[in-house]
Amino acid sequence: MRAENSATARTSIAVPARVTSPRDGSLRRLPALGEGFAQPGPRGGTLLAALGVVAFSLTFPATAWGLEGFGPWSLVAVRSVLAAVVAGGCLLALRVPPPGRRHWTGLAVVAAGVVLGFPMLTTLALETSTTAHAAVVVGLLPLTTALFSALRVGTRPSRTFWVAACAGAAVVIAFTVQQSGGALSSADAYLFGALLVCAAGYTEGGRLARVMPGWQVIGWALVLCLPLTVPVAALALSYEPVELTAHSVTGLLWVAVGSQFAGLVVWYRGMAAIGIPKASQLQLAQPLLTLVWSVLLLGERLTVAAPLTAAAVLVCITVTQRARS
């Protein structure tokens, strides 16, 4: 991987109630893992979604660390297995019944997009691309997610929302392209594919988070992938060289537990509370957060354009949050 450019009141814990599955096979909401018995308000939902963005902003630097000791296929497969073990343990400990049959198609979309597609495609891209260039994906993701949401769940954001969203996406794209020297890399195909599959997974996950807790959405999606990720992990580890270092192990653990599970738990919870389009616009700040982490963790240097871009993005986020859907 090349790294010469800048890269990208008291809380109560609810006791899970006894849950039964209705005859239609749907899953009733289980208030657990700190989710509480009531849906969070707009402020709480925004905070949860923002925490998810912070967790995601560390994904690319952590992936760069992981690639120092693991091959791309090993890193993605092992991270998925580890995240599934954590999620499956939570599901078993809380005796969560399996989702109804009608939810498994949506969970498969989440699994294909968020658990497998996006991590694999971006990891392959980061082998030849800088994190700054890969941040283009994150810059386009909010707008793409809003488009998928409009098509999938019928949301109709206002014109002001769309203008601010497009402006924010344009600012982020211009910034990240400038940081990468304006040249397109061979990883563009991977990044474009990652953008599409992740937007689909976010949209479907946000829809499912309205009928089941967000942690169960990603938890079941991770478990669903185990029959594939376990043999792939074993095969990849046997073919790709592995070097266990502090960086590689830390990077692996973060992308597995932080990005793949904990980050998605709060992210889907936030989306369910404030809506998919508005939550997705918070990700406009993600490339800039990634740049900050890249300075601190990868030793990159920021340009003068970074604070100016940050100010413009914050204005766009404010407008989208206040615009009526």
Provide a quick synopsis of the model.
The protein has 325 residues and is mainly alpha-helical.
Give an overview in words:
The chain is an all-alpha fold and 325 residues long. It is 69% helix and 0% strand. The longest helix has 29 residues. It is globular and about 45 Å long. It starts with 41 loop residues before the first helix and ends with a helix.
Q: Which series of helices and strands comes N to C?
A: HHHHHHHHHHHH
* Total DSSP E strands: 0
Mean pLDDT level: 81
Strand content is under 5%
**Helical residue percent band:** 55-70%
User: Which value, in Å, is the CA radius of gyration?
Assistant: 19 Å
SS-derived structural category: mainly alpha
Low-confidence stretches: 1-37
Q: Counting H and I runs of at least 4 residues, what is the number of helices? A: 12
Main sheet properties: none
- Shape descriptor: globular
Head-to-tail CA distance between termini = 41 Å
Indicate the multimeric state.
single chain
Which tags fit this structure?
about 325 residues; mainly alpha; 12 helices; disordered N terminus
